[in-house]
Amino acid sequence: GFPSALFSEKQEASSESITSTSSSSPRNKEDCGCDEQQKPGLPPPLTPVMEALDPKYKCTGPIGQGSFVVSRTGGPTREELSNENLYKILMIECTDLEVNTVVWKCLGYRFDEEKQEWTAAEVFPNWKEKYPSPPDLIGMARIYSKEVDQPSLRANQSLVRSVPVDNKQSLKTHLKPLGFTGYKYAELTPNKTRRAQCANWLLYYREELFGYSLEELKERRRMKKEAEEAEKRRLEQETGKPVEDEWKPPVKEVF
C-alpha cells in the first residue's frame, strides 16, 4: 500500500509496479505531496492549477508546446505511444492535460475541431457506458479534497482495474531500459502515482489493444480463454489430478 500521509483516502492499486528503493529524487519541484502540513523528508505541497477547474480546460488548455509528442487531432499514434514519450510522463516532463489527452484518444474519444469538444465517437463500449465524456484521470487541478478529487480518483481506479494481471508490470518491462526504476517510497504522491498508472495502461493498450477492431479484440479474448482451458485439461490428464484455477484480481476490461 501507499503511505497514508500522502493520500486523501485509500487509493491507487498496483503499487508494486510503481514503488522502488531507487535513490532518485523528484524531477520537478511542482510535483509533490498533498499534505496540508509538510512533514520532514517529504516534498512541499502542490500548487493548485485553478484553470483546470474550468470544464473547457480539457478542450482549450495548452498541449504540445514542449518535447512531449501529443495532439488532440485524430486517434493515437505510434509516436505518442513510444517508450521515450511514455517515459516523459513518469519524469514529469509533460503536463497533466497532455497525459489525459493521450489516454483519452486511446480510450476512443475524438476531438471535434469544428465544435471544439470531445466526442465519444470510438470509445470502448464498457468504458463509454460509465464515462460518456472524457474523465480527468490525473486530478489536473491538484486539489485533493474529496469534493474536488473524488471523480478523478474513481476514474483512475477504473482505468487500473481494466488492466489484466499479466500487464501490471509493464513499466518495468518496457521503461526500465530507459532508466525508470520506480519512485522512492517517500516520493509517492497522487500525481506521480496516477501518472505511473496511466503510463502503465498506455503500455497495455499499445501491446494488447492498439490496432485491433472491437470484434478482433473479443475474438482474441475468446481464443486466449480457450487456450487456457485446453492447457488446464492437458495438465489434469498428465497428472491425474484436478488443477485449481490460479486466483487473479478481477478485471473490468474497457471493451
What are the main properties of this structure?
two-stranded antiparallel sheet; two-stranded parallel sheet; 255 residues; globular; 8 helices; mainly alpha; single chain
Task: Explain this structure.
With 255 residues, this protein is mainly alpha-helical. Helix content is 38%, strand content 4%. Strands 1-4 form a two-stranded parallel sheet. The longest helix has 26 residues, at 214-239.
Strand order of the largest sheet: 1-4
**Which structural category do the helix and sheet elements fall into?**
mainly alpha
Query: Between the first and last Cα atoms, what is the distance in angstroms?
Result: 28 Å
The chain-level mean pLDDT equals: 85
Form type: globular
Q: Please report the total strand number as a whole number.
A: 4
Q: Give start-end ranges of low-pLDDT stretches.
A: 1-17, 20-40
* Proportion in helices: 25-40%
Beta fraction: under 5%
Give the count of helical stretches. 8
Cα-atom radius of gyration: 19 Å
Main sheet specs: 2 strands, parallel
Question: What's the gist of this structure?
Answer:
The protein is mostly helical and 255 residues long.
Write the layout of secondary structure elements.
Elements (H helix, E strand, L loop, with lengths): L18 E2 L36 H4 L22 H8 L5 H12 L2 E3 L4 E3 L5 H6 L15 H16 L8 H6 L7 E2 L5 H20 L4 H26 L16
Parallel strand pairs: 1-4
Antiparallel strand pairs: 2-3
Helix pairs in contact: 2-7, 3-7
